[in-house]
Design brief:
Elements lengths: L2 H7 L10 E5 L4 H5 L10 E4 L9 E5 L4 H11 L5 E3 L2 H17 L14 H14 L6 E10 L5 E9 L8 E5 L9 H12 L5 H6 L1 E5 L4 H9 L54 H13 L3 E8 L4 E4 L11 H14 L5 E4 H4 L8 H7 L4 E6 L15 H19 L1
Parallel strand pairs: 7-8, 7-9, 9-12, 10-11
Antiparallel strand pairs: 1-3, 1-4, 2-3, 5-6, 6-8, 10-12
Helix pairs in contact: 6-13, 10-13
Pfam families: Peptidase_M14, Propep_M14
Family: Belongs to the peptidase M14 family.
Cofactor: Zn(2+)
Length: 409
Amino acid sequence: MCHVIVSNVYAKNEEYTGFKVYNVKLETEEQQYKFEILKSDVIGYWRKPSVKFNITGQAMVPPSHFKWFEEKLTELGVAKDISIEDVFEYLSWKEEVAEKILRNEEDKMFSFDDYYRYNDILNYIRTLETAHENSTDINFKVIDAGLTAEGRPLIYIKVTSQAATSEKPIIIIEAGINPREWITIPTSLNIVNKLLDQSYNKFINNFEWIIIPVLNPDGYEYTHTNLRLWTKSRSIQSHLGAICPGVNINRNFDVDWLSFDSSSSPCSHIYGGPEAFSEVETRLIKSLLDSNEKRIRLYVSLQNNGGFISYPWQYERAASGMFVQQHLLGLSMIEAMQEHYNLGVSSEVYGDRASGTSTDFMRKNGVLYTFNIDIVPRSEDSVIIPREEITTIAEDVWRAVSVAADNLL
């Protein structure tokens, strides 16, 4: 699929014209085991189905593959159930509603109940840094970690107390690894805001926090300007260059790279890259591990796949050797949350294995507690979260993260 050419010719999201979204409800373990037959480089899953957790999957299918997909549903014994008839029309309606809200809030200051463009986010973060540069209590730094393929600054935030020592344990929060999952970004910024609140001094007194609010800035901007459901970066390192740009950042880590739910085709939405760590975004995470390996106590990847807290492995249909500790901490996290979240091994809760993920990479390299927190779905789909839901979600995720930090104390 030639994304660059299409996006230059068509209006925003018009590439999705005629695409349908199918509900995929698996009833048996045998169907789950054979789920692979419903996968293709051109089929984009908004959410994977899971028999164990009674989760209905959502598959976005292009017109070229309607017949193929419906034949595979029949082969697997799954009923045909279309939830969205035309993705372009659906996205157009969603954006029309959002624009009406924005027109009514033109003078609104930066807050944690809205979605912002990357430059606005950077400006806000740098404003926070300036506000705390003379603080005697809080050490707040914005670290520049290089430039993206399209020349945007890739940054992360360090927050701790001024009584910091090099030996403080570290908690890392990663957001925006999948650029279409906008909800993760205000959720991460809300965590930053909480850490600056004196009520939570114990967390910065006892930990150094690293928050990456937008791990994939180029992809995130592209979801605002061109394709709302884009899942990759915008680099052009593959043999197809600008014809099929981008790498799925959460398939580019050196953990069973390119084996499961990953593709060697640059045109695929799950393209794992020309090699592991080919992308500046994944190299940022690796550099944080390399320089802080013995101090990282908790790594959280914020995502939006359907209401889970999960722990490794995702590349393997098994838990890691320390899963009892991970499960017990996960139980404390979901018990603190107001909404219902499922807990389990990532490959089970997602209903599928996946190679090259950030949390598996961190766990493989000695970080004991690594979790994906996947937002509970809203409305007809599991991707586009209405603005009015942001605060509720962000506060719930903070409950889970703060409980995890409390337990680590």
